[in-house]
Recover the amino acids of this structure.
């Protein structure tokens, strides 16, 4: 079984409730969406085909239990499901970062899915697969990447209409260098939202570049 892998690297997890944990990242090549704020466009193409056994052998060299499978859009490669299962079978604590346009119902239930709900400002709101919300587990998380106050207000409405906070934790994240983190924090506090406001720790530490 082979997957097209753009990079495998070891870094500090910069997002989700796992923020700060030393983590191995497996970045798959390719994505069907083109969000206006995308910070991994370099992974739309390129990379190399790797056997799943070789991927696992690479991961073990880093000596950590935390693994994040990301992209691009990892679920755009159907054999990603096999990789996720193999990682879980090996004993890793696995999270999956997905853009929300592809069905998550077949993802191994041991995986923590980080589901990105695309806002109007992303340019990809039309591709949200709303049926994914029915497959969320308590160990999953829903992320809203916010481009503006209008995105924030839209996300608030989605929280209520789909009762997302009853399903799993919710993350509100400002677009890097576009929405002030302080401003977003003040919005969340003013509205008393039951969400986790996050910034991208890896970018604070190392800036916006591949491999971090």
């Amino acid at each position: 079984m082979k997957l097209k892998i753009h990079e495998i690297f070891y870094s500090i997890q910069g997002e989700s409730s796992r923020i700060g944990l030393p983590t191995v990242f497996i970045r798959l090549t390719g994505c069907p969406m083109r969000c206006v704020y995308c910070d991994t466009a370099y992974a739309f193409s390129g990379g190399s085909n790797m056997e799943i056994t070789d991927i696992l052998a690479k991961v073990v060299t880093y000596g950590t239990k935390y693994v994040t499978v990301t992209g691009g859009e990892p679920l755009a490669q159907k054999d990603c499901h096999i990789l996720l299962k193999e990682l879980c079978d090996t004993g890793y604590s696995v999270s999956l970062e997905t853009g929300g346009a592809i069905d998550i119902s077949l993802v191994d239930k041991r995986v923590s899915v980080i589901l990105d709900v695309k806002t109007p400002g992303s340019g990809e709101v039309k591709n949200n697969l709303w049926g994914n919300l029915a497959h969320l587990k308590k160990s999953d998380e829903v992320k809203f990447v916010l481009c503006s106050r209008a995105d924030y207000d839209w996300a608030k409405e989605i929280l209520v209409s789909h009762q997302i906070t009853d399903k799993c934790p919710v993350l509100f994240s400002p677009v890097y260098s576009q929405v002030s983190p302080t401003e977003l924090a003040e919005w969340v506090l003013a509205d008393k939202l039951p969400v986790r406001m996050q910034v991208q720790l890896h970018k604070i530490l190392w800036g916006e570049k591949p491999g971090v």
